[in-house]
Amino acid sequence: MTTVRPAQSRLRAVPPGPADRQGPHGRRHSENLSGYAFLSPWLLGLFAITAIPMLLSLYLSFTDYDVLTPLSEASWVGWANYERMFTGDPSYWHAVRVTLTFALVAVPLKLAAALGVALLLNRAIRGIGLFRGLFYLPSLLGGSVALAIVWVNMFNRDGAFNSFLGLFGVEGAPWVNDPDWALQTLILLAVWQFGAPMVIFLAGLKQVPVELYEAASVDGAGAWRQFRNVTLPMLSPVIFFNLVLETINGFQGFTSAFVLSNGTGGPVDSTLMYTLDLYIKGFVELDMGYASAMAWVFLLAIGLITVVLFRTGRFWVHYSDGEDR
Amino acid sequence: MRGRLRLLLLIVILAVVLYPLIWMVGTSFKSPQEIASNIGLIPEKFTPGNFTSGWEKFDVGFGRFFLNSAMVSALTVVGNTVSCLLAAYAFGRLKFRLRKAWFAVMIATLLLPGHVLIIPQYILFRTLGWVGGDWPYLPLLVPQFLATEAFFVFLMVQFMRGIPRELDEAAKIDGASPFSVFRHVILPLSRPALVTTAIFSFIWTWNDFFRQLVYLSELEDYTAPVALTLFIDSTSESSVGPMFAMSLLSLIPVFLFFVAFQRMLVEGINTSGLKG
Question: Where is the ABC transmembrane type-1 domain (chain B) (predicted)?
């Protein structure tokens, strides 16, 4: 990685000091040893907590295993779990649809809200620090059970939101109890937490050179054209960063769906997010082999989506220090 | 857009954003009858009853759940900061064979979703007898002591890149061992990164639900978020008030951290893009 490259070249530039007198390989050898000594907790964690369990789960994804019996009793079933997932489990495709809908709707709305508020905050405003902090607060309390509980209650049939709508003579929906609206309620909760990407947008907006706006307004560009031709392209790396981050997060939504449906994904599976389905298959139905297969497909899907985002990013992300200048 | 209009718009949006939080505070002070009748923000009569009844609602008492959460969070903070710091020092400042390769592996684990690992880890910890064992928090805590939160390793490596290399070069030329460079140069200078890591590990662990839900099965071992879900099972009219009261209490530690470190938290997500 680029992280280490400048460091190394500088190390080489340092003239040999007394420490090198221990012998031609003395210092190198000692750094090698201490390098691994400092790395040892991480290495242990990598193998014991991450790599070996990953391999185990790959193996289990080809078995039928209920967790209650010893591992040796996991029976090999070949591709059966994957076959069932793609052809014999309607709830699986339902969960995929729910998750895709959630991510495809929530992420753009959230980013739009974040960018909009960031633009409003970007001009000199008294108390900007306080504003920024308060907008960020929902993101920080974010995925907590407590907030999901409040949110779900707000969108009950006779909750605060419907009585607010009542003020305008609008009759509200039963929101969380209505299969057509429950997911929208969760999407709204996700959009409400726009504070984290907003703060990143604000930082990005600060980097846009003022001269560009000045030049644009000399050329007679109005607010919209300045936004379209200066702000958006200059901000595109930050937009891209937020997009990748929020998309990956969006696919992993769990807590709010769990709280809204009391762990079932209801009403009528309308909030059955992929991760919730995985939890139910693995830890409620104790079908760990199948859940492992689900986890691997999830991993590959997220990897694929990230790659696709990076590929498409080439067409619209402009790095001001890159070749396209 | 004119300044006034802009400010007005911001205040309106802020009111919408803060509404659920204020409503939560108000509702937790309403009596059960008032919750049913008054949907407004401010209770007609402030009653602390929800807090006392919520606190005693489940057999072991909510105090126990808060203590459990506090212990898990505190130990996670210690584990994360120490183990990630050690790894970051190795990646950031030491030369050793295969460093680049290991660093690439670390970045790869950064992108690994937790939901993918939960099943094999559960099976591993269950095989070891840690799930539902004498001390059910082992599966939650041991990974934190082994620097598995790659995010913090990355954060600290990035930070250490900013510490002038001349400092440890000078110390090394004076004959200092890598350990004493770590102890006397890097450790004191890394304080801002350590504090950021500590704050975010605390908040994330306090808010975490998925892993605690999976590993904790006995009522007396429950942490605050898992205990809160007990209320959902019994959403009768009378339990909404206590549920709100306990939800509010469970947000207070995070809120206090927010007030104390607001500037740092915001700068933290600025520089690293980390999520709240």
Answer: 66-261
